[in-house]
Every structure is written in structure tokens, then in C-alpha cells.
Amino acid sequence: MKHLVEFKAGRMIQNHGAKMVEPDERKGLLYLYRDREDVLHFCWKDRRSNKTELDVVAPPGSLEFRRVESCKTGRIYVLKFRRSSNRMFFWMQDPRFDLDDDLCARVNELLKANTDSDDELPTSMPPSVNSFRHHSDHKNQN
Asked: What are the CB-based long-range contacts (under 8 Å, 24+) for 23-29?
């Protein structure tokens, strides 16, 4: 499996009901890939254990990846689900901050692939929150 884009990033932890997030100190890797059925996956793995812990199936146009502009103390990004209020937060771990904008643009380019607009998903598409899969024992797919 070839990664379409990858970069060093950690996860952020948000307690239920809390508006603030805290960093998960583990070293991580965010990556996107297409499976055999050409379905896009947004993934995060722990670089030390080499285990993929997050694998989000990303139907075209269902997700967006954006910098959290209100955060002035770090390089925090959010993965937003367009059809729900679900959000996942990440912090950039690569020291080359000048690449952040290009990486974010590339992720969004892949997330929007095969769509004609930013409008709603087709009515036959299930809510993206149902496409979320959390893998604690997911085997390395490299």
C-alpha cells in the first residue's frame, strides 16, 4: 500500500464535554491511502509501536482538514466530518513548519477528490460518522 501523503503528527485528546484539547505525547504519523476498492482512508499510527490506531474511511467530500486558527501556541489541525459534529484534532510534529500549508492543501485535495462541489454528499451516502473505525490492534499496512 502506497501512502498518497504522510507527515509526522500527534493526536490531541478531548475529554467529553470539554472545549480544550491536550496533546497525546506519542510520536505519530498521519497518512492517507487508497485501498483495493479505491476507497480513501485517513489514518494515524504510533511511530514507536508502528500500529495504526485510527483508520477513517473518507468518502469523497465527507471530511475536511483545517488549521485551528484560534490556537496561537501550537500547530493544531482538525479533521472535520461534514455531516456530523465529530472532530479529531492533531498537532504537527515535523519541525519544518513551512510545509504545513502545503501538507494541509494536499490532504484536502485528496479528501475532495472526485467531487464536483463542496455541497452535501449524495443522499445515498451514510453519515460519515458511521465510516469511522478505530483500530487498536490494526496490523501495519506498509
From this structure: 23/74, 23/91, 27/93, 28/90, 28/93
The pTM assigned to this predicted structure is: 0.77
- Distance in angstroms (rounded) separating the CA atoms of residues 27 and 85: 27
**Among 61, 73, 77, 64, CA closest to 120:** 61
Nearest Cα residue to 59 out of 42, 44, 84: 42
Which letter does DSSP use for residue 8 in this model? E
Tens of pLDDT along the chain (142 residues)? 799 999 999 999 987 777 788 999 999 999 999 999 999 999 999 999 999 999 999 988 899 999 999 988 889 999 999 888 889 999 999 999 999 999 999 999 999 874 444 343 333 333 332 333 333 333 444 4
H/E element, 50? none
**Residue 112 host element (H or E):** none
Alpha-carbon distances of 11 from 29, 36, 72, 107, rounded to whole Å: 9, 27, 17, 16
